[in-house]
Every structure is written in structure tokens, then in C-alpha cells.
Amino acid sequence: MAQPFQPFPPPPDVNGNVIFKIKGALLTLRDRRVLIDAAGNPIVTLRQKMMSAHDRWQVFRGESVEPNDLIFSVKRSSMIQLKAKLHVFLANNTKEDVCDFRVEGSWLERSCTIYAGESSTLVAQMHTKHTVQSILIGKDNFTVTVYPNIDYAFIVSLIVILEAINHEDDG
């Protein structure tokens, strides 16, 4: 059974300091990305499970892809969707009858909301932050609001997966 994920400390400030970066997508049989902290330490590995009807992704501790290091998995709630709806299952939720978290939103609109399970309890929100840089050179900037007691790396991982699934749909 996987050990509980140790929360990553909150960012030191809101002055635009880099907290996380993504390494990848690595050219392997499985689409794989590594979330690293500002010092370059691997936090989690995000791996797309190939041949999956619902775009399943798995997230592992550090750079591992071993089953005992699985933290959570993410899949689309259905194969055909106009707006993204992802279900998140923690590693110990092996039956997957009810999701532990869900992501709803639209990458095209650059916004999403993350809820606790099937409830209306918000845990995080993301939306586009319009700046001169984003308008003039087309570089996206986002505002992500993470509610208390929610892990920052967890939320960033979900946003990266949402973006990856959107690019699959475009291509």
C-alpha cells in the first residue's frame, strides 16, 4: 500500500518566484513528465497509461514508476466530453467506485475548478491571468488559487495532466 504523500511546503511568496517546473515529455512508450521543485529535486512523475480508453494518467512519488510509489491516478469521467471532467483516485482507492477529487473545466478557456470528491467543496481553481506579456507574445500566465490544507504539487500535477489531455485532443 502506498504511503501518504507528504505535502510540499507552500510557496514562500507571491512575487512570481518559480516553485515548480516540468521536465518531459520524454520520448518513451509512455508519455512521462517529472514535476521538479525550484532546486531541481523531483517531486512526482506523471505517466500516461497507454491503451487506456479514458486517458488514464498515474502519478508516482519522485522519479519512480513503481506500483508501490503510486500516489494517485486520473482519468476522464467519460470518453467523449465537451468540457473536461477528470476523476482523481488516490492510490488506496482501488475500487474506484467514487472519485476522491474531480477536475472540471476547459483548457481552451484556460480555467478549471478542482473539487473534493463528488461534493461542491472547492480545493483549487485556475484561470488565465491576462498580462501585457501574455497578450503581446502569446505566453500564457495563470492564477492558481489553492485552498488551505491542499498540496500545491498535487494541484499542479492535475493542471499538467489536464493540459496534456487537451493537447491529445488537438492533435
UniProtKB/TrEMBL annotation:
Pfam families membership: LOR
Family the UniProt entry places it in: Belongs to the LOR family.
Name of protein: Protein LURP-one-related 15
Organism: Morella rubra (Chinese bayberry)
Superkingdom of the organism of origin: Eukaryota
